[in-house]
Design goal:
homotrimer, mainly alpha, two-stranded antiparallel sheet, globular
Chain lengths: ~425, ~425, ~425
């Protein structure tokens, strides 16, 4: 991994700097959106990073590689989005809004990272990031500029896209050896609490995520809708988590993830005048399908369909993203609105949703096939979900293990001795 | 717990959605206050949640049930506050300010949660949340609208109210079996550091808490007063923590809690022109009584008065809240001001303080009596302070325990064998 | 420590309150900068605190003493900066901007705290804070008012100053006994993840740090430059971290620290029209020298030059701070600009950089000599890097140790017995 990864990363950075030098300029915009940018920034680096840190031995990679993907991706996203959206006189102009969009673009790669978490190498993630962000930008251009659909909170273009892209990648990278229960795929008490840091910062700032690029006059509606959708979603998730457990106990994986599904699902239509109680309905349904997905669908996907979705992104981003798209279609059908000067139509919204999922699945499968090439040097199954494959890990953690080994060795020696004494006495 | 909790939670959500559908509309307000809302939101979900995560085996509940209470409570608070404050044409209008007030209302239930932490079930907390937020809203209406007292940072209406409500509940729910020292009531090294995440986010954003609903022109004063009150309080807390320990060592429970007392105590008069050095005096006194409360009062309350205050909310919210009320009375007496068009008077402020504490104690005792009904199925003492009563907890945490048991069993067998050999040889 | 520390802290607080009473008044400023203040506040209390929490047994001190230093320092900084900058009619006027500057002033003491972390007592840190903040304010006055140099993001006046001051202190306080590898100087798996909380909040909010006191019209440029400098720096750090390891593995200490060097280095010229790609170059070079510093320079400083730099502040703040100063000189030479009505010159910038480093080294050495006086009661080497010297630490942490001791004792007894049996049989 030493040279493959480092040469790739350093070379990419050199290329980015050159491209920035040639194509990028400051925009004379205002800093009004900076407050929204910062919240999105916290969600990307703290939220996504810590949410994935629930695994016992994969916290360094979750938080660290999350940072790497986002830092790399935001530069690449700036360039790709800039090229696509034209730019004045061939130049890409950087404003706070373009920084928000750059951060957004990295979210797709981070969602896909959740699907393959523990099974890919850092160098594979570099290429996944490059490919996915490029395709995301193309798909977003298709949805926003060509189809002229609405998706302000990006239920479809970020969440569904990132999830189905990642699921297709993980399907292609299927590892039969990981079907057995893996000790390292579990969480620990403290790793679950670290993950709650991610959950809560995502939950808290989600209204900013959905409203960041909403029109000025729509921001307040977007914030209100997202706030109540998330609140309803959280209560429903707690209720169902207890209901579906035989002893009525809460499940951390559900609380960490399904509580956020409301924010995903309300994204597409959060800036429409849907009424707060409709937002709460969307949030409640999102929590429900997310909980059901984790309980019933994820095991089936893994065992029957060879889709090993480490973080359950299908339940947090995939299904709620589709729900968001469908909600957008229904709202458009019921109550026609105009966005950015264009009449929203059921047809445009439906095309946006199906196009996004289709493109994500196809391009994800293609990306998976590229990542499967032997040149990347796949890690063996037994090193999956283990930071020590890619990180220097402090040794002290192994103390209990040492004790256990000592103890076992001790018992073994003793048994032999007892047998020996038994013979003598 | 399975059906009691889940049916209650899901039913409540359905009722909320219906009530929102009937009564709630968007307000055409601006997003100016959104920056303050977000800070309060972080304090409610991260601040309160992690502050309570100091217990060895109760981190899931602290962070998780905190989220549940707040997500449920903010919907309920929106409705109750909306009904009380009238609304235009019978409708409740949602603005950023009403969202801030909704978040505020949940703070009372979260403070009371700190008093009963580890001793109540989630279903009991649902009912506590409903009852407390309703009574809080009534008391706040009394203080602000009828008495027309000032309490911008809510020293009285949130902090003192939440604390004395919770103390009354915990008195009624008294468990003699918990008087003995409980292993699970301790912290661990890392749980104490998790708690500091809560402490620091509360400390950092407290100026926003106190200024969120202050008049536009008073915000800067409120921010400055809270900032310096907290700084003085923190230094005094460190000084006293060392002074009161025989070996001069700092106590984590004091640093986690008493450093925040200055923010509580300066709340009532933070938006008055009290001068920064007066704010620092209030902060210093708050730190002092908080430290003294933890050291000397809490043990007495537990042993003599049957008040088992798990997080010491009396010292963080109760006493500093009363101090805040008294400071408000003194400031009003010394330097009469006009707030919202009304002349502040010593009488109104005194009535607000004593009324708030009285209502909190009475309604808390009543709520405690309701929560004591056998229909809720109290958990046995030995399951208190233990997440595994309500959560699926990762197993691996028990490794050291397994080792210890193995080791003890091993020693026992060996002793028997030695005796046996002794007889033979 | 009991009386020395507590009397000092409490006495200082009394003095501060008196000085505030005599000299400090509210300023009638706006709250416009409050959004920037809050980010800086998070960086100071969460960012610096958790970044230093990587040590196995020093998390309480890192997070707690960080809070103490900052809470004390911001009051002292307010006074010192206020006295230096005159004030209207002999009064110091508090605005959000002065609060930002007060927080900034504490950053120097926190950086120096990183250099001596684990080796000084809390009472020593009180005096270091007082001395350093006073000298920082003088040096800042020299740089900004007398030399009229530019250093908006404070690469020189905060980062280089804090680092070289701290390095001089640690040189004077040199402890030969700590040269051997110390078990407690290591991290644990979870302490490294705690540290990443600090890293990420610093990384996320660094654009606010650099732009907080930039002129309104320069803020957007400053934010953009810092954002891309950090992104480039992070990618380069990951690349080099892998490249420099024999097995290509990432090093947590590098990811925690060197990823931030870009924010430090771009500080001086972030508000100049340097073009984003130049910011990225500066960030990349900063990451490179920071990584190289950690790998090659820190061991040499410790073994050859008696500079024991616990957190490696030389690599995060020292070298990148100097780089920032040099970048400022070069930019000034290439593209002359006017700041605050004054033409920037190479001479002024060079004088600012060399003056800052010189003053930091001299005053740091002097401060070290004062802290070395026997009256402070140095802790013995074996208590270094151990919270239990100054904090009540939860006992449960020692379980594995107990097990190990039990086990060893057990083995010892057993061996004796075997020998005894051997003789008998």
């Amino acid at each position: 991994m030493r040279f493959k990864f480092s040469i790739t990363a350093l070379l990419l950075e050199v290329i980015f700097i050159i491209l920035f030098g040639v194509f990028v300029e400051y925009d004379a915009g205002s800093v009004d959106l900076y407050a929204y940018f910062k919240d999105v920034h916290v969600m990307i680096f703290i939220g996504f990073g810590f949410l994935m840190a629930f695994l016992k031995k994969y916290g360094f990679s979750s938080v660290g590689i999350n940072m790497l993907i986002a830092a790399l991706g935001l530069q690449w996203g700036t360039l790709i989005q800039g090229f696509l959206h034209g730019g004045v006189g061939g130049k890409i102009r950087i404003s706070i809004k373009s920084m928000i969009n750059a951060d957004f673009s990295t979210a797709t790669a981070l969602i896909s990272f959740g699907a393959v978490l523990g099974k890919t190498s850092p160098v594979q993630m570099l290429f996944l990031t490059l490919l996915e962000i490029a395709i995301f930008a193309l798909n977003e251009y298709l949805v926003m500029e060509i189809l002229q659909a609405t998706d302000t909170g990006a239920s479809m273009t970020i969440h569904a896209f990132g999830a189905y892209f990642g699921l297709a990648v993980t399907l292609i990278l299927y590892r039969p050896g990981l079907q057995n229960k893996y000790e390292n795929k579990n969480s620990t008490y403290h790793s679950d609490i670290f993950a709650m840091i991610g959950t809560l910062f995502l939950w808290i700032f989600w209204p900013s995520f959905n409203s960041a690029i909403a029109a000025e006059g729509d921001k307040i509606k977007t914030i209100i809708n997202t706030y109540y959708a998330l609140a309803a979603c959280a209560v429903v998730t707690f209720g169902l988590s207890s209901l579906l457990d035989q002893r009525g106990k809460f499940s951390m994986v559900l609380i960490q993830n399904a509580t956020l599904a409301g924010g995903v699902a309300v994204g597409t239509c959060a800036d429409l005048a849907i009424h707060p109680f409709v937002a709460m309905c969307i949030g409640s349904i999102a929590g429900t399908i997310s909980v059901l997905g984790f309980r019933f669908l994820t095991p089936v996907l893994a065992s029957k369909m060879k889709i090993q979705d480490t973080c359950g992104v299908h339940n947090l981003h995939g299904l709620p993203g589709i729900l968001g798209g469908i909600a957008g279609i229904i709202v458009t059908a019921v109550q026609p609105e105009t966005k950015r000067g264009v009449q929203l139509t059921v047809g445009r919204q439906t095309a946006a949703l199906s196009g996004t999922v289709g493109i994500a699945l196809l391009s994800g499968a293609l990306t998976g096939a590229i990542l499967k090439l032997s040149m990347w040097g796949q890690i063996p199954d037994q090193n999956c979900f283990d930071d020590s494959a890619y990180w220097e890990v402090p040794e002290e953690e192994k103390l209990p293990e040492i004790l256990l080994n000592n103890y076992n060795e001790h018992s073994r020696v003793e048994s032999t001795m007892w047998t020996f004494i038994g013979c003598r006495i």
